[in-house]
Amino acid sequence: MKPNIFFTADHHFGHENIIKFSERPFESLEQMNEELIRRWNEKVDVNDIVYHLGDVSLGKPDFTKEVLSKLNGKIHLIKGNHEYSALRVPDRFEWIKDYHELYVEDEEANQGKQKIILFHYSMRTWNGSHRGIWQLYGHSHGTLPDDEMALSIDVGVDCHHFYPISYQEVKEVMKKKKWTPPFAPRN
């Protein structure tokens, strides 16, 4: 069976103040950490592929290593601005990059592949944005209004009930966008 692909960002494991800053519905840091791990593993299987778009943990390296050992999936990390501890556990990641251009096989996509730009930060324009290329980001914790004219979305946990979001879920969001190719023939 082919592994599923998931996207996520901004867990901020070990960061007590994020509960207040992002108005997360958790009573304590321990409850947040446990619930984020539970929800991750509820969706992600051990062989699934996860692209984490930054800010994994603000806890100490040993704490972060322990949390990462509990998470299912083959994790690829796009660095965020809070990666001190995650970078000290490099073996847990398939790779670590600042930016990535991903191609997902999809028979409904142009030439059978959907290209996706992965970056911690939201961009107003990106490589191929005028050609239907998607951009996924985190960092903003749901504070940026969605642009229905752009094929980009915040995949951070604060926007998706603290769960990773699957490729199929991203695709459904993109189908509802009002984006049109800027160079398409006009009637």
Can you offer a commentary on this structure?
The protein is α/β, with parallel strands linked by helices. The protein has a single domain, classed as Metallo-dependent phosphatases (Purple Acid Phosphatase, chain A, domain 2), CATH 3.60.21.10. The chain is 21% helix and 22% strand. It contains four helices and nine strands. A five-stranded mixed sheet has the order 4-3-2-1-9. β5 and β6 form a beta hairpin. The protein is globular, with a radius of gyration of 17 Å. The model has no long low-confidence stretch (mean pLDDT 95). Pfam families: Metallophos_2. Belongs to the metallophosphoesterase superfamily. YfcE family. InterPro entries: Calcineurin-like_PHP_lpxH, Metallo-depent_PP-like. This is Metallophosphoesterase family protein.
Distance between the termini: 44 Å
Integer average pLDDT: 95
Domain count: 1
How big is the Rg? 17 Å
Helix proportion range: 10-25%
- Examine the coordinates and then state which fold CATH places here, giving the name of the CATH topology: Purple Acid Phosphatase, chain A, domain 2
CATH architecture classification: 4-Layer Sandwich
In which order are the strands of the major sheet placed?
A: 4-3-2-1-9
The CATH superfamily label reads: Metallo-dependent phosphatases
SSE class? alpha/beta
Pfam families: Metallophos_2
Domain Calcineurin-like phosphoesterase: 33-141
Family: Belongs to the metallophosphoesterase superfamily. YfcE family.
InterPro entries: Calcineurin-like_PHP_lpxH, Metallo-depent_PP-like
